[in-house]
User: What shape does this take?
Amino acid sequence: MPGETRSRGRFITFEGGEGAGKSTQVERLRSRLSQRGIGVVATREPGGAPRAERIRSFLLAGRAKALGPAAEAILFSAARNDHLDTTIRPALARGQWVLCDRFSDSTRAYQGALGDLDPTFLTRLEEVVVGATRPDLTLVLDLPPELGLARADARRQARSEATDRFEAEDIGFHRALRAAFLAIAEEEPARCVVIDASRDADAVAADIWSHVEARLLGAPVGEAGDGA
Assistant: This one.
């Protein structure tokens, strides 16, 4: 925004189950912020840096599944450590905004839902890897898992992609996953906003923008500004 200076960029994460539309909404918000003259880096987890992307391929192919949820959580955290050091922290230090498709809440939700891991273990792991680099805002895109899985299946078929490690879990897992994300949002309302992702992409994007304005750009929720 003209005349505004920032010593540190803003960090926004997008969370939710399969087929929630996170990547679509990351791109929508990236475009809208860019129109405001804000420098933006859009990234994803696992991945977002060369070594982290290699770990992503290993994890989503299911090659770590036999090692158990604790080992998977450690591998996700190893990828996150590289992502933070290579991509996220340098961008924030340059004053850019970082939009990340999944972050540490996904490890808490997915590995917690998969293996009922001790929350203390996941918390300590997050403290070591993430440290003070916590999101300024987390948008939890929520929808019934049956709808999300149907969307994910349609996307895979359109792209001729295989089912990944987590999409292949049964419906009970995906229901537990949804509950885990909603519990995180309830525990941390100052950071998290739950967005109804069952609506069309335009409605979801408008809702997201209103919260970004209210929490990070200063406009009240419901006053969508100039629409730029």
User: Anything to note?
Assistant: DSSP finds eight helices and five strands in the chain. The longest strand covers residues 11-16. The radius of gyration is 17 Å. The first helix runs from residue 22 to 35.
